[in-house]
Amino acid sequence: MPTNWVMKQIGLPPPKADFRPQPSFLHMNKLQPPRISLRKQARIRRTCIVAGVDPASIGLPSVEETNAFTSALRTQPHSGYKTPADVPEVQLKELKDSLQQKLPKGRKVQFDLFKREKKIHKNMSAMPETIARWEQDQEKASKSTKPTLPF
After folding, report:
1. 14, 63, 70, 130: most buried by Cβ count inside 10 Å?
2. DSSP 3-state assignment of 31?
3. Which residues contact 69 (CB under 8 A, 6 or more apart)?
4. Which one, of 95, 4, 76, 2, lies nearest residue 45 by Cα?
5. 17 contacts 36 by C-beta, under 8 angstroms
6. What's the Cα-to-Cα distance from 48 to each of 7, 101, 129, 138, 140, rounded to whole Å?
């Protein structure tokens, strides 16, 4: 079950800049890490995928872009990157294809939770018809068990 914080990030997404590293004002050749950590971004991305929401629609960067940021932040002391746009493009088509097919980490219960909630909502919306059918069946059953003779 995703936490309330994760659901809040999906429902009321923060600015896109919070998901990306920012240039440091003290050290011009360095990047500050994103305000929302990469681990939290991954949790938000997994929840979006399970819920059927496009992660890019709430401002999350793509997986390739996140990998480029991560490598830029790791090589930061020796790099001349000034902005995230200066980070070189990552050419990982095979990785991208494998990431699209692979489910994110988590328990099966977490993945089935949204399907289960949709099924419950659908069944609850059809409940008045189900109750009416059940009552008709009960009336038919009670009439069929009554004897036709008056004594």
Report:
1. 63
2. strand
3. 20, 21, 31, 34, 38, 61, 84, 87
4. 2
5. no
6. 9, 15, 33, 44, 48
Pairing mode, if any, of strands 22-23 and 31-32? Answer: antiparallel
Rounded Cα distance, 49 and 66, in Å: 16
Say which DSSP state 37 is in.
Answer: -
Cβ atoms 55, 100 nearer than 8 A: no
Distance of alpha carbon 17 from the chain centroid: 19
Phi/psi of residue 105, each to 5°? -65, 150
Q: What is the mean pLDDT of each run of 10 residues along the chain (151 residues)?
A: 76 83 72 84 86 85 79 58 45 47 70 84 94 94 78 66
Place of tokens 């109750």: 131
* DSSP line for 83-132: SGGGSPPP--HHHHHHHHHSPPSS-HHHHHHHHHHHHHHHHHHTHHHHHH
